[in-house]
Amino acid sequence: MTRGHTPEPLKGTGSWAGSSAGMNARLALEKGSFCERGVDWGAFRKWLENNFSYNYAKNSFNYAKRFCHVLFSGDGSVLLGISEGLRKTVMAALSNLSKFLGAYECWREIITNYGLRWTSGKSEDFVISRITHTKNNSSVLDWARKVKAEIPELSVFIDFMLFSGLRLREAVNSWNLIIDLARAGRLSEYYNEENEALEHYRFKTLFMRRGKKVFVTFLPKRFVEAIGKQEKLTLYQISNWVRRDKKLKSRFPELREYYATVMTRWLNPAEIDFLQGRVSGTVFMRNYFNPALIGDLKERVFKGLAEIEKELAEKS
Known about the structure:
The protein is mainly alpha-helical. It is built from 17 helices and 5 strands.
């Protein structure tokens, strides 16, 4: 099956995009085999790899195959019995599969019929999560100090993750780009000295992934110049040094959360979302090119960075 081609519905089920009855159509698998319905899993895997990162594509493919019966039977009850974290992952995988098959409306109807939600959406859950992460800050910083001490090659990189709030993949891409451009004498193509900001939006293929993006990161010039003197890194290297060689847990996502937690003392939630890429491109463009807004935002971000630097320097 090629992308965008919809498999023929089972006899008696009506059209995929037809009426409610047709879409709830009991899009059942015959003999438990998807292949018999003509679904090209190889093409689906390639479609994922062309649109997403390798690891995301791999996970999405595996969960789509494991839970495809939900999409083809119209029965979403199984998703109500799994954890919220797993449900979010499975729903994303099925969403991708439905788009590939041209059956996205069918998937949306399953979501509606079973009251499926990506998250609980409760404000109190967010508050509790934030309090929990705040209490865990000291242990996250202990981990960061330990990595810096035991793996000198990652010392400045750990600082970079703490000061930027980037996801690990984004941080590695940014780190390597800074080094490449600094060596070529072209750092100004990425780092805006006037705004003291890394302008990720200038490099869309690296930082504008589907579902995950980042537009800009405020950092002092001295720190960016220090990165330019370091060596490039890979995700593979980092994982090996931390997990294989030193037998340490990988807690890089918690560094991003720590950044957001500290910044709540200086920024409002919308501003943190702005910095961590949880806004649309239109919202970003409207705000970033407003000198009055950006000057004030940068000043408060730098106050947060000073606090992070101070806490990191303190002994546990």
